[in-house]
């Protein structure tokens, strides 16, 4: 039960952070034609943070399960938004913007993986 509470606390913080990030981007976007920049930013930033977190955990030999659950599973799980990503992909396709949907998917995946790699490199070089 304590592990679930830890994940829930982290998830709540991450979800609120994701919501606020989306609001910031939505204030500056044309709703009819804009790419979902808030979701893209959350996914890339979340991947970067996950790379830094797990690079740090591996580098320092930390085995603190509470920290992993709070930050990795909870906070970053609540912040990153691949479920919202899937929905937005479908909405773009349904609106007849399949090309934009494919571009969005490619940028999300490639930038996210690149950011995760950079996060790992940051932690490996932080000797």
From TrEMBL:
Principal localisation: membrane
Name of this protein: Fluoride-specific ion channel FluC
Signal sequence range: none
Phylogenetic placement of the source organism: Bacteria, Pseudomonadati, Pseudomonadota, Alphaproteobacteria, Sphingomonadales
Inhibition and activation profile: Na(+) is not transported, but it plays an essential structural role and its presence is essential for fluoride channel function.
Transmembrane segment boundaries: 34-57, 69-93, 99-123
Membrane topology field: Multi-pass membrane protein
Natural source organism: Erythrobacter ani
Protein role: Fluoride-specific ion channel. Important for reducing fluoride concentration in the cell, thus reducing its toxicity.
PANTHER family per UniProt: FLUORIDE EXPORT PROTEIN 1-RELATED (PTHR28259:SF1)
Keyword Metal-binding among record annotations: yes
């Amino acid at each position: 039960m304590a592990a679930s509470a830890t994940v829930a606390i982290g998830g709540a913080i991450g979800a609120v952070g994701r919501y606020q990030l989306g609001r910031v981007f939505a204030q500056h976007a044309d709703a009819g034609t804009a790419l979902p920049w808030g979701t893209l930013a959350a996914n890339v930033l979340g991947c970067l943070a996950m790379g830094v977190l797990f690079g740090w955990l591996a580098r320092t030999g930390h085995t603190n399960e509470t920290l992993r659950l709070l930050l990795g599973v909870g906070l970053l799980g609540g912040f990153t938004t691949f479920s919202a990503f899937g929905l937005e992909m479908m909405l773009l396709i349904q609106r007849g913007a399949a090309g934009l949907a494919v571009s969005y998917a490619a940028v999300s995946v490639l930038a996210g993986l690149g950011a995760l790699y950079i996060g790992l490199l940051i932690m490996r070089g932080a000797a």
